[in-house]
Amino acid sequence: MEIIAKGISKRFFRKAGESNYFFAVKECDFSLPEAAVTILTGHSGSGKTTLLSMLAGLLAPDAGLVSADGRNLYGPDDRENSAFRGRHLAVVPQGRAVLDTLNVLDNCLLGLRLAGREAVDSIAKAEEWLDRFEILPLRSAMPRELSGGELRRVMLIRALMTEAEVLFADEPTADLDEENTEKVLEALQTAAHQQQKTILIVTHENEALKIADRVFRMNKGEIVPA
Amino acid sequence: MKRSHLVLHLSTAALALFLCIGTATFLGPCVHEDGSAGPCSDAGTASVLLSGVLAVLALLPLLPPVRRSPLMSVVPGAAGAILSVILFLVPGVLCRLCMMSTMHCLSVMQPAVRILSAALFVLFLASVVSNLRRRKAA
Amino acid sequence: MKRLAVKNLLGRPGRTAALFFLVLLLSLTLCGGGLVLSSLRTGLGSLENRLGADVIVMPAKAALKTDLDTLFLQGTIGPYYMNMSTVDKIAKTEGISRLSTQIFLSSMRASCCSIPIQVIGFDPESDFTVSSWLKESRQGSLDEGRLLVGSRVNANPGESIKLYNISCPVAGQLQPTGTGLDTAVYCTLPTIRTLMTAAEDLGGYSSISGDPSETVSAVYIKVKEGVDPKDVADSINVHVRKVKAVQTRSVITTVADSLSGLERILTLLIIAAAVLVWLVLFAAFTLMTGERKKEFATLRLCGLSRGRLAGLVFREAAIVSLLGSAAGVGLSFLLVHAFSGALGNALGLPFLLPSAGTAATLALAALFGCLLAGPLAAAVSARKLSRADTGLILREG
Fold first, then answer.
1. For chain A, which has fewer Cβ within 10 Å, the N-terminal or C-terminal residue?
2. Residue C51 and residue C273 in contact, taking contact as beta carbons nearer than 8 Å
3. Pairing status of strand C82-83 against strand C215-216
4. Is ipTM over 0.90?
5. A77-100, pLDDT tens digit by residue?
6. What is the span of the domain harbouring residue C67?
7. CA distance C40 to chain A (A)
8. Has this prediction a pTM greater than 0.95?
9. What residue in B sits closest to C341 (Cα-Cα)?
10. What is the per-residue pLDDT across A25-50, written as a single tens digit (0 to 9) for each?
11. Is residue C176 domain-shared with residue C221, that is, in the same domain?
């Protein structure tokens, strides 16, 4: 599935100098091709996360259009947009995004369950992923008992479990040690190349660049060549 | 000790203590205008004593020697549950009350003792169940 | 989704308990308040039914010393008697359809008696006030020496009550009326006269002058159709000396007046308390919204639509409301039923629990009201939440 953004902009209120607003993303044209890992780097506050959110259908742009295989991600019907997002797009956000009332295994299966796509072998698959990322013993633990790195792996497994065609990951290797960083990057690369997934990674870390098919850099809300 | 256990034991003790003080004062038996005790005074005395014992039983599992043994901590809860049933039966069944339903012992003391002793029974039972689970886990 | 709502509630026991307690309080206020109001209305209705007579005549002395308006809430008029010759004079008054006499005797709480109690003696032949009630209560015949006890007298059929050293077997117990009549015992005129003689022997009733068999406490009058009870009462007051005739209508009107005053205050209090609790519930849901922003953003990014998210919040609110209101309704029934005696005493008005049908209607109304209250309190926050931009919430960190 190909994601295409045309002329998208997003501005936020911030009183600085003469203007009351600043552009987090400014008239940006961008596309994510199928079966490739695209990496977006840049300084903090350069607009990477805002762009990722807009491409993932989570933040409506002030101007421009975002489409997935020709379908507008911000159509008038929220139910249809959400169902499409749940089925085709998976997101690993930068911050903590898990349900504190569910244990690790239930959190991993959350996306599948909400989309009504839980299968007989879903639990076994989730356990396989948990084992691969070395957190299987924590399957019944509650999120409050987990470290930052463990939580990040849970969010990644949740995204991978949905089997969505497009995967957005915002700093997926933050808080991870070298060994686990390796495993996560390998999983993302496999997903792109063997399962033909469209992958966008936003990161500061150079380690991630080695799995990139395309690398872009953001600067003051604009995309510049890396 | 888990916070929920502590809350359970403390709330049971507080309820039993309230009943003990209550039946000794405003929830107590009838007192005639001349100051003499009514036929329900035995029920009042028994209620005060039993609820006092229940308060102590509720606090026992908080003592370190009892707390350390999961089996030992079940005993006060079980005894409390049995005594709560006895307390329920004190006004009107085990001890006689006055003959007019408008009298204080029948209109206030009996319903108060019955409702609170039923609540105490549930709390003691919960304490037994939670301590048994703790024992199983240990 | 249903499982998620339940897991969310179980996963935050403190928050769930607080919401449950608030809804319980709301339902307790609505159902408990409604039950008290309904019991007062039922009590008034019962008083109307039980009075039966249009005019009551009693010794003038009794009228001076007793608050006639609360006569039947308190029980009887006390140790004041009139002679049978006075009854004959009363009977000659124009417009009387039926006339019956009753004798009241107050037992003392002393060695003579097991309970301090009002004893009411009536003549089953001429009676038209107590008899119909006795029939409703399906009691057997009242033989001499036996008693029927009011619903608030703690004695069962087969037991005996000792009055003035005479042990009287209890023949049956009457249906409750919510009035002072419930604390009295009933017997025939020969039985009460035996008790009066025994009382005199013990020095209990110095005010009984003359032959107890020639003495009565009150005369109950039913007027002929088309006759104004006021005319009959006025005529008796003018023509018969040393008695006071009162219309029962005035007794009921006075009770109804004080009841409507109390009803207004109680209704206002119930509404104020319910509104206050609902506002706290609303504030709790609003505060929770801020606290759960991240959780809802997570659900949105997993593909949950705004509608389904609002549905989840509603479902949680509905589950807590259902449990809280059911517990509140149960608790209010338990408390009002258990403390009905104390409530009646405290309010000083006829207090009788409503019929099962009325009680069930009240319970359903309270349940329905509280079931709506929770989701309604959550509606604003659910809408606000579902409108928030997921990307912005996640961007906030």
1. C
2. no
3. antiparallel
4. no
5. 888 888 888 888 999 988 888 998
6. 51-248
7. 47
8. no
9. B107
10. 888 898 888 888 999 998 888 888 89
11. yes
